[in-house]
Amino acid sequence: MCGWKETVRLPVAGHRRCHIWLKDGICLWYTVVYGSVDGICPGGRGAIVKGLRRCLVVTLAVVLAVLSPATAGASQVHGHLLFAGGMLVGPVARYLADDPKLVRMYLLGAAAPDSLWMAHLATVPEVRALLKERYRVDLAQYVEPLPSPVADVHRARPVKVALSLLAAARTPEESAYALGWISHFIADARIHALVNRWGGFYDGDIGPDDARYAAHNSLEALESRHVLTRYRDDLDVKYFAEEDARSPGDFVVRALAAAYPVSPAFRPPEADAFIRLLDKTDALLFLSSRWAYYQGTHDPREIARAKGLLKRFRPELGRMTEVLTDLPGREEYLKTLVRSPFIGEWEIARKDILADGREILPLCVLYLWQRQHGADGADGLLERIGGKLRCLAPGDDLINPRP
Fold it and tell me: Average pLDDT over the chain, rounded to whole?
């Protein structure tokens, strides 16, 4: 049994009760009514979500999870939170002044490229047609159609995107978000190269029947299990602190318009629809990451029980948990540590990522300071930062950083 159970009345007229179950600072809450959604969050009683998610977000989660290796695999947000936290030292920590709001925005930026990837997926015409043909799902019912596809920020000029975010930042919050984004870039450049070496290069356009799809899912699930087992106490859970925190849409639009000047997706009148889509994919990433966190911190019996409750009372969310790749159990994880050197190589990559971040992010802080104070040399420093990012990903492609 969980640590305690509390029954509360929903703040919506006519709705029945919901139960909140907590154990070890993790809350899993579910409802038995329509128009609401289940959530999973670290942080204990104080982190219980006050608002109710709508079925729209859950349906979108299920729809994208069917086609998305980013969500059909284990959430890698926890790895990015770990790496971003490890880079939050020295000048970077001083620049953010240990302000919880700025640190929160920094961590949102560290997760954001994966949210943008899902936004890209939702606007690809071929994906929308496949959903309608194979799954009888009209995505237009859940996501406002955008006439122009959103670029994949991992594969389409990711160095330019990172530099555009730095150059477009005008406020401390936007600067923190840009620094977090670059921490994601630094981590992906090494981790994706490692996963490609072990599982084969996985192009997101190939189908789920491809063996490389399964290999990538299992490796990413193993990575998430390792992070949540070995480094759980090192994770900065400010990312999960506020349910309604989202990417600064206007800022992201300004930066992406500079990175992709010919794309109408980031200019009026389409930009407003893109911001609304980004808000939904942020929510999806947040929700799938909570589920992975729950799996990584509970035993198999509790996980199976949670799945059963979700499937019974919230079948839409239950479908999502069936589509998402489960993290390997503790016994399987320990056997893998002995039989495979993948985690050993991941640990080497972790140290390299932190070394890269602790070199590059202080340069980014210096650039932001120089520009803020009108000092000479800011443009040259931005080019220097770009050169270092290109060295990490010579192919200018974070999915295949070293072709």
Answer: 78
Q: Identify the weakest region by mean pLDDT among 76-85, 202-211, 378-387.
A: 202-211
Question: Which stretch of DSSP H or E encloses residue 7?
Answer: strand 4-9
In contact, 389 and 154? CB cutoff 8 Å: no
With contact defined as beta carbons under 8 Å apart, do 68 and 348 qualify?
no
Tell me: pLDDT of 346 over 90: yes
- Calculate the dihedral angle through the C-alpha atoms of 139, 80, 321, 314, rounding to the nearest 10 degrees: -70
Alpha-carbon gap, residue 400 to 378, rounded angstroms: 30
Contacts with 192 (C-beta within 8 Å, 6 or more apart), sequence order = 398, 399, 400, 401
**Which H or E run contains 349?**
helix 342-372
C-alpha dist (Å) from residue 381 to 1, 43, 317, 345: 56, 40, 47, 32
Structural contact between residues 94 and 368, judged by C-beta atoms closer than 8 angstroms: no
Answer yes or no: are the C-beta atoms of 244 and 280 closer than 8 Å: no
CA-based R_g, the chain, Å: 21
* Section 205-233 average pLDDT: 78
Domain spans in the chain, listed from the N-terminal domain onward: 55-298+327-392
